[in-house]
Amino acid sequence: MVDTVFMRIGQLAEAAQTTPRTVRHYHRLGLLAEPVRRANGYREYTMDDVVRLVRIRWLAERGVPLGSIAALFAADTSGEGVSDTVADLRALIGAVEVEQAKLARRHVGLTSMLADAESGRTVSALPTDVASALTEAVDTASSPGVQRALERERDLLEVLAMTGSAPEQFLHSYASVIADDEKRSRYLASLSDWSSIEGKEPVSIESAIGQLACSILAQFDEQTIADLRAQSDVGLGMPVSLDDVVPDPAQREVVLRVQRALVARIVDEGEGR
């Protein structure tokens, strides 16, 4: 028969690869029972305490909250509460899966940023094809006004990308527009018109505002509308004040009309399906 081996708190902590402070913390939480003090005034622990302590640490390292560990121990002892334990573990697994998805998205983003940096491109939140297409358009703009409009558009799209306020397909549509000669021509013409209304009173150019809004709307093909509808939970709202992004009143009125018309079109066509 093997005699019981007694340990003091430091020896217990060392055996379980933790610290006396952690052991005392588990005592306070009721996870680890405090042994009765012996005649010499010291608490002395046994191998049962080592096993219990190692089990606590094993569960905690796997993401089980300390409060749930207590419930697990209670279920093991009484046989009751098993369904609650299963539910808790399923919830923990679900939380881990959510975190894994976040990490996967972060990995994709960092990989894209690394590729931009290694290629000498400006690190951007925009998809590579969109950023490249807009940069090329800025560099080859036909006038300073169009160039400024393109730069502002690029900045706005980057804000939308960084805040997750626009579907990725919506962003990719810009690259497809610029890559197509006919669409690119219409797009740049719209930007030229956009530049021409800056500084003018909206009331005095009502017709020009309406025509420009219609011209921009015409560039949203059925596929883009369908993609926006499919991701309607993302929305078309601005993450920052529209007044800050588009300070010019006439240009801001164009944006508002396009935004309202797009929302109405998405809703109407969605209900008609």
Task: Provide structural commentary.
Helix content is about 70%, strand content about 0%. Residues about 235-240 have low confidence and may be disordered. With about 270 residues, it is mainly alpha-helical. The protein contains 13 helices and no strands. It has helices spanning about 10-15, 20-30, 45-60, 65-80, 80-120, 130-140, 145-165, 170-180, 180-195, 205-215, 220-230, 240-245, 250-270. The chain folds into 3 domains: about 10-80, Multidrug-efflux Transporter Regulator, Chain: A, Domain 2 (Orthogonal Bundle), CATH 1.10.1660; about 80-125; about 125-270, no CATH class. The N and C termini lie far apart (about 80 Å). The longest helix has about 35 residues, at about 80-120. It is elongated, with a radius of gyration of 31 Å. Helix 7 packs across helix 9 (about 180-195) and helix 8 (about 170-180) crosses helix 9.
Short summary of the structure?
Helices cover 70% and strands 0% of the residues. With 273 residues, it is mainly alpha-helical. Mean pLDDT is 81; it is low at 233-239.
Helix content: 55-70%
**What count of domains describes the coordinates?**
3
Low-pLDDT segments, ≥5 res: 233-239
The average pLDDT score comes to 81
- Rg computed from alpha carbons, rounded to a whole number of angstroms: 31 Å
Q: Please count the beta strands (DSSP E, at least 2 residues each).
A: 0
Which term fits the overall shape? Answer: elongated
